Amino acid sequence: MESRKDRNGDINYTSNNHTTTTPNTNKTTTTSTTDKDHQPTLCMVDLHHIKKDTTMTREGTPPLNGLTNHAYIKGDDDTDNNVTTTHNSSHRGTTSKGNEKDKYKGGEGLVEEIPPADQDPQWQPGIERMAILKNLIIISMSFVFLFTSYNAVANLQSSLHRGLGTFALSSLYTGMVISCLLLPTWAVRTLGEKTTMFLSTACYSGYVAAQLYPRVYTLVPTSLVLGAAAAPLWAAKCTYLTKIAIRYAEVTGQNSELVITRFFGIFFLFFQSTNIWGNLISSSVLSIGVGGITDAANETEANLQHHQQSLDTCGYHFCISEHNATTSSEEEVVVAELTWRHYIIFAVFLVSSVCSALVMMLVDPVTRFVKRDPSQDDKSIKELVLATFIHMRHPYQLVIIPLTIWSGLEQQFLSTDYTAAYVSCSVGVHMLGYVLIAYGVSDSLGCLTITALMKKVGRVPGFVIACILNFILITVFIYWPPRPEHLPWLFICAAFWGVADSVWQTQINALYSVIFPPESSPSAFSNYRLWESVGMLVAYITSTALCVDDKITILLTFLVVGMVGYVMVEVMERRGGPPKDSQGKVIPLDKLIISCFS
């Protein structure tokens, strides 16, 4: 008999056909035997846990995140070929890397992997990793097609259709807010992530198609439908990415928080590039036409003459309502001249939105990687519909609402107020597309690099850097009177705002994924989209009612209050999380407040 220690400190005694492993700590004995009448089998007995838990199971995964494992005992007299496995109710079965290295050679005593019933028998960890990454790229590309068209159409909406366009966008955001309260959790639980994303993307095509025949009875209904579909779309997308990111971390043995951040960084790298493609398409099509160059030159000269007379109103003291009152007649002439070009633009964007739905069909169901939680199937429709409201009682959710609203406000400020008060007012509307392209490029590159930065310094410095960057830019906007000769600075400010936005988009999404458990992802991301939409809706409704100085005051308020709430979350996390009851469940904030006075 030969004895040796392996790398784990276990002592292995080996004879002809008998191997016994004695660990130093866990008191586990593994025996493999062969004879002429029986195939090799594996017997695993956990002497420490066997009396506490004798649950037997065939499916599962190795122990992860401290979850309880259940021993399965297999002897020579059993009739089937089951082998030792462990069970995790949230994920599908696989064998650990350690077992992979302990397989016998030459066909003797081979330990087989037990695939789950709904998986490919040839499924391997390497193939699974590639499949997860493939679905991440497919979803990202689908969103690129979708929001290249939607963002560009939304940017053109109010200027093309005047009051009708403004009313349609207000209807869109109103529908989105209502949808966030009622639909996402029910849709994700009932239809699944893939079906929800596919149906939601299809609803965007109707909105884009309505631009070809803009009337009240075409724009308003399609805007409401799009708003209702947007909330389930984003909730399903975020839930899908969170689940496959956690699964990818388990397969590769990486930190789940870093993988979640990386996945959202990759997604927003693609997503934020839509500002580039949409503006490139719009600018290219609008420049087509006989005499287009001459007309553009004349328009630029006229705009510059007008801007020289009104430069004092640009910047911090800009009021868009007063600006529209003096330029409405000129804009109507330009819109009438470019109508046929707009039809070309909308046709291109309609094709793009249809392609988005077709690409989304290629996504694998999330159950291919993560097993469906059966406990969620018992919930009634009422519970699913009210899940978003119930989730608001979570202490974390309440304190990060201001930061989530800030996310919507800062995006809308750049796309509406900055472009109007600082770009169009000082150098003319012909530069809008180029400035937004600079914003999109920096935003995309920021999403690409933010993951590597967060891996080295953590998420707290990332939030602090973004906060400082936005605070500096807002201070510049207060004291800077833009002029035509300041054109390079218009690009620089937009680019740095894009860098800060890349942090907010990736890190707030990742924060929701980390601080809330996976089973509450749909309701958590419903709240995320709800409060972000509230910020966008407030910014859009007040775009003509308030001047830039009032909007900047609102921005600063939500930035400061939002960061205070974020710091509170980090402090609670470092102290062990929010208060819990005797069953380990988080105590809702309203009950905490009542208990303080009782």
From TrEMBL:
GO terms for cellular component: plasma membrane; striated muscle dense body. It is a multi-pass membrane protein. The keyword Hydrolase does not apply. One of its GO terms (biological process) is regulation of potassium ion transport. Residues 87-97 have a biased composition (Polar residues). Its main location: membrane. Belongs to the unc-93 family. This is UNC93-like protein. It comes from Petrolisthes cinctipes. The lineage of its organism: Eukaryota, Metazoa, Ecdysozoa, Arthropoda, Crustacea.
